[in-house]
Structures are given as structure tokens and as C-alpha cells.
Design goal:
8 strands, 367 residues, Dehydroquinate synthase-like, alpha domain, 14 helices, six-stranded parallel β-sheet, two-stranded antiparallel sheet, Rossmann fold, alpha/beta
């Protein structure tokens, strides 16, 4: 039976400046004494100034090798012996890796995001790639994180590109959840919560996103900055947590997955590819008015909406490769319940390119 499962939140979540210095009291509350810490070099550089200095518990640090892949999960799991908790410190891939390792070795996981680029700190799932960065699948786990610590002051020193990508990835929560949930004649309460939270993601990010980017550039801990980082991490995670399969992914993320098949897009962050996927999903839905409303926001945040901005060759062979991956039977684009095949996907790419070109021409003439 295909049950609807609600995994609404971690056991504990705190978003306050200086909270990482209180890591040990949280660990002791749950009886943890020996931590297996997964992080990257940049992640550790970001968190080290905030990490407890007078440590009374045991920590062993292990570096990840750049991908949340099956081989990396196996490698780290093989080292995880005689520990009682996994701590993941970093961006989305590191946190996903920590969750996957914790699931494999049957330990609790504690997450400390160093970027506000995804809801990875909140959601009990991991996106799995191969060792070359190509999307493979995502795995959903039976347990949420034990606790999540978010330090806005630390995030104020994160690269602006990741916050921009996180805004785009979280904006997709509305478009993807809405196109699935509106098919349901009588959605249960948990799905209504997911739907309303997805709409909150959209309205909050459209209102506060540009200012939050500017505040990050100026290292200012403002109301808009906090609204955006908590929307990306908490509200974004709640959509899937309460909506389950009705609140996770649809067309935009399938487009992302297709784009990973082409090496020329590997320089783009996850959220940047999802941003383009939102627009392609809207093309499929024939919702050009919404595309027109979004393009000024995309321009303000420097999100890609053309082949050139994606670094994508305008070649049919390349587009066919991407489209073929997007429409694979297991892909979430089919949850939209709209007839789609490889040819219609390629046509959607060209339609968006023409629309974007006309939009940019009108903008130039208006100046």
C-alpha cells in the first residue's frame, strides 16, 4: 500500500547566532559521546571559528571527496566503527552524504549547514550522484535528523552564489508541489499544509530574495536575510516533509536531472539548473504569464533563463540528450500528468529560448 508518510521536522531545530558553540550540550542531551564528523575542507574552514573550543566529547573528522555517491557512502560507512552519532557539516551534498551514511550504519545524524542553498538540513532524504556528478536517484530515510543547528552569522560569510541557487531551488517548491497537489480532489490536511507552505516559500522569496542577496554581500544580518535562509532550510523542507511524494519534485527537478547529463552544465549549481527547470515546466503548462512575471526576478538574482546563460550549446543533438534523460519513465516530470515526450521537451527548450530572446529585446528597447 502506498501510504502518505509525514516527516515534518527534525527532533530539534535552532536558528540563532552563536548556536554552534552550544553543540556539546545538545549532544549530551541525547547521550552522545563519540562523533563521526563528515565535512569538506571549505565546510570546515567556514565552521571552525564557531566550533566549540573546549571540547569534552570525542570527535573524529573525515573529509568527503566531492560527491554524495554510492562509493563515497560505502567508503565512509566502512570507517564508522564504535561511534554513536554522525555529524554532517557543509552544503547540501555533504549533509546528504551524512544522512546516507547514518542510515547505512544505523546511527542518529546531526546537521550543521554552512550554506543556505538547499533544504538538505531539514529533509530525511539524500540525492545520490555518480562519482562524476551525474544524478542517479534520491533515497528517502525512515528517520529525520536528531537536531539541526543554523548559525546566521556563519551563513553571512557564505558565497552569494549558493544563496542565490538556494532561493531558486526553494522557489521550485511552489511550482512543483502545486502542479501535483491541484490534481487531488480532496487533499488530506498534511498535503494542505505542504501546499500552503510551498506558497509561503514563493511569496517570501519573491519579496525578500533580492534584499537578502544584497544583505549577504554587505554582511548584514537583516530580517530579509533570516527570512530567506529559514525559508530555504525550514519551509522548503516542510513542503516535502508534510506533502511526502506530493510535495517533493516534479518537472523542474527532472529538467535539472537532464541537464546533469551534459558536461557543459556541470559548472552550474543545483539550484541554477532547477531555476531553468521551473521555466521549462511552466512552458509545458503553457503558463507564459507566470514566466513573464518571473523573468525580472531572474534578472535581479542573475538566474539563468537562456542557453547562453546555461553554457548550453544550441545544438539539437545536445538538447535531445537532455530531453531523453528528462522523460525517462522513472522521472518526476510525469507526476505533472501532462503528455510529454522527447520531442515536446526539445520544443519547450526552443519555445523558452525564443520567449526569452523577445523579452530581452523589449528590455533593451525600453532603456
Amino acid at each position: 500500500m502506498d501510504l502518505l508518510e509525514v516527516r515534518g521536522a527534525p527532533n530539534d531545530y535552532v536558528c540563532e547566532s552563536g548556536v554552534i558553540q552550544h553543540l556539546e550540550p545538545f549532544l549530551k542531551r541525547y547521550g552522545f559521546t563519540k562523533a563521526f564528523v563528515i565535512c569538506g575542507q571549505r565546510s570546515w574552514n567556514a565552521v571552525e571559528p564557531y566550533f566549540p573550543k573546549d571540547r569534552t566529547l570525542s570527535y573524529s573528522f573525515f573529509r568527503y571527496h566531492g560527491e554524495c555517491s554510492l562509493s563515497e557512502i560505502e567508503r565512509l560507512s566502512s570507517h564508522c566503527i564504535d561511534y554513536d552519532v554522525i555529524i554532517g557539516i557543509g552544503g547540501g551534498k555533504v549533509l546528504d552524504l551524512a544522512k546516507a551514511v547514518a542510515n547505512q550504519v544505523r546511527l542518529d545524524v546531526v546537521l550543521i549547514p554552512t550554506l543556505a542553498s538547499t533544504c538538505a538540513a531539514w529533509t530525511p532524504l539524500s540525492v545520490i550522484y555518480d562519482d562524476n556528478g551525474t544524478y542517479v536517484r534520491y533515497d528517502i530515510f525512515p528517520k529525520s535528523a536528531t537536531f539541526v543547528l543554523v548559525d546566521p552569522n556563519m551563513l553571512l560569510h557564505s558565497p552569494v552564489a549558493y544563496l542565490r541557487a538556494g532561493i531558486a531551488d526553494t522557489l521550485a517548491k511552489w511550482y512543483e508541489a502545486d502542479c501535483i497537489i491541484r490534481q487531488l480532489p480532496c487533499p488530506p490536511l498534511s498535503i494542505k499544509i505542504a501546499h500552503q507552505t510551498a506558497y509561503l516559500c514563493k511569496t517570501t522569496l519573491l519579496e525578500h530574495g533580492p534584499k537578502a542577496i544584497n544583505d549577504l554581500l554587505e554582511k548584514r544580518d537583516s530580517f530579509s536575510f533570516r527570512q530567506v535562509i529559514e525559508t530555504n532550510i525550514m519551509a522548503g523542507g516542510m513542503v516535502g516533509g508534510f506533502g511526502d511524494r506530493y510535495g517533493r519534485v516534479a518537472g523542474a527537478h527532472s529538467v535539472h536531472n537532464g541537464l546533469t547529463k551534459v558536461s557543459s552544465t556541470h559548472h552550474l549549481l543545483h539550484g541554477e539548473k532547477v531555476a531553468y527547470g521551473i521555466l521549462i515546466q511552466l512552458v509545458i503548462e503553457n503558463n507564459w504569464d507566470e514566466i513573464h512575471r518571473l523573468l525580472p526576478f531572474y534578472q535581479a538574482l542573475q538566474l539563468p533563463f537562456t542557453f547562453q546563460q546555461l553554457g548550453l550549446p544550441n545544438e539539437k543533438e545536445v538538447l535531445h540528450t537532455i530531453a531523453e534523460a528528462i522523460v525517462q519513465p522513472e522521472e518526476s516530470i510525469h507526476l505533472m500528468n501532462v503528455p510529454i515526450n522527447k520531442e515536446t521537451m526539445v520544443e519547450a527548450f526552443y519555445q523558452l529560448e525564443e520567449f526569452a530572446s523577445n523579452y530581452k529585446n523589449k528590455e533593451r528597447h525600453a532603456l
